[in-house]
């Protein structure tokens, strides 16, 4: 196999976010002549990149520049059908994504984790399990550090735990994880993908280059995920909460167990799991299945689970104010994720929902809203869609800001109830990203706590 080289090649990196900057720095270190193009007029990392010799092209993209490159590398947020990118393809220029680029230079082995919901939780917990066992591990990709930043530290004994989104996978070619994990599948990102089929096809690329020597770890409770994974060639070691497994990881009685030809070995007591909701327990099962395949001892798996309290913005308990619990699930950016979040609580939920619409149907939440929710507070560009879909089920209030939404939700909540941020949409209408949205929610809850009179008992 010929080693991949970019030495003296003209490489166009598209997108000046975290992944694009990391790709540009990696390419320079490998001897490429790098131009970074970003449609914005300013780049925070601009001075650093210029000092490395990276040429910056800020503002509208120029198709002739893309067509004149030897290679084009896309950041995940860059649609592959942009005119300048299409011009490069027509000129025969290879177009790949940042994850694909980095993966070609990794010396260690890869665990790739994808799905509509739960990727970050599973990626983080998987890495912690390996670390508990003393295994050289890195974690990143769509979560945390871009994969390009890990190339320099990659060694043959390193396991790279990589969260990959559909945007990253659609721009892969040779990407080859030894273990590929598919957590679940539902409609998402239909503002980017033209159909559900296209979205699922992007997800399926996580299995595309696997062989019979590799492993696919799939949620056996999700028929769509199973059907997609069956097209691949890898061996299966699956996980499930409800489906009976002969081989894989599941729950038996009060414990997480590994089944081997039907025989069960106890790994982790359920009492050691400190994450709310069935969907987060499913993420624990997925991480445990990967740990088993890598050879993590049960004691290390249990220690990692016991000490893992979850991620920020993923069913994160923020505070209790006057008997009302506030929960931040800003990472619930699609309909399916919002459903899982709402189902994690009994009756008495006031849910803050809305944002930039990504496709799907808010009407699909009618049954879970009827069963668990007393009031919806709608925010963002999609608040009229939320009201039209759910207004006949429960009262739907419209808020112009997160501060207004938190106050209205608090005033609507019943004693002992929950105020849940589960947007079911992206954040880009009001915030920079889901993290800023979640932090703003928490800041408004803190402001509410400090409001005179709020701490008095509710009557």
Key terms:
single chain, 459 residues, alpha/beta, UDP-N-acetylmuramoyl-L-alanine:D-glutamate ligase, Protein-Tyrosine Phosphatase, Chain A, 3 domains, 6-stranded mixed β-sheet, 16 helices, 33% helix, globular
Report what the structure shows.
By secondary structure, this protein is of the alpha/beta class. It folds into 3 domains: 10-93, NAD(P)-binding Rossmann-like Domain (Rossmann fold); 100-307, Mur-like, catalytic domain (UDP-N-acetylmuramoyl-L-alanine:D-glutamate ligase, 3-Layer(aba) Sandwich), CATH 3.40.1190; 316-449, Mur ligase, C-terminal domain (Protein-Tyrosine Phosphatase, Chain A, Alpha-Beta Complex). Helix content is 33%, strand content 21%. The protein contains 16 helices and 21 strands. The strands form 4 sheets. It has a 6-stranded parallel beta sheet, with helices on both faces. It has a 6-stranded mixed beta sheet with strand order 16-17-21-18-19-20, with helices on both faces. A 5-stranded parallel beta sheet has the order 3-2-1-4-5. Strand 1 (10-14), helix 1 and strand 2 form a beta-alpha-beta unit. Helix 6 packs across helix 11. The radius of gyration is 23 Å and the shape is globular. The mean pLDDT is 93.
The main pleated sheet reads as:
6 strands, parallel
Helix content: 25-40%
List unreliable stretches of 5+ residues: none
The proportion of strand residues reads 15-25%
Q: Any idea what the CATH superfamily of the largest domain is called? A: Mur-like, catalytic domain
What does the radius of gyration come to?
Answer: 23 Å
- Highest-level CATH class of the largest domain: Alpha Beta
- CATH topology value of the largest domain: UDP-N-acetylmuramoyl-L-alanine:D-glutamate ligase
Q: Specify the CATH architecture of the largest domain.
A: 3-Layer(aba) Sandwich
| Overall morphology | globular
DSSP E strands, number: 21
Order of neighbouring strands in the sheet with most strands: 7-8-6-9-10-11
Strand pairing plus helix content: what structural class?
Answer: alpha/beta
Q: How many H/I helices?
A: 16
Amino- and carboxy-terminal Cα gap = 73 Å
Mean pLDDT: 93
Count of spatially separate domains:
3
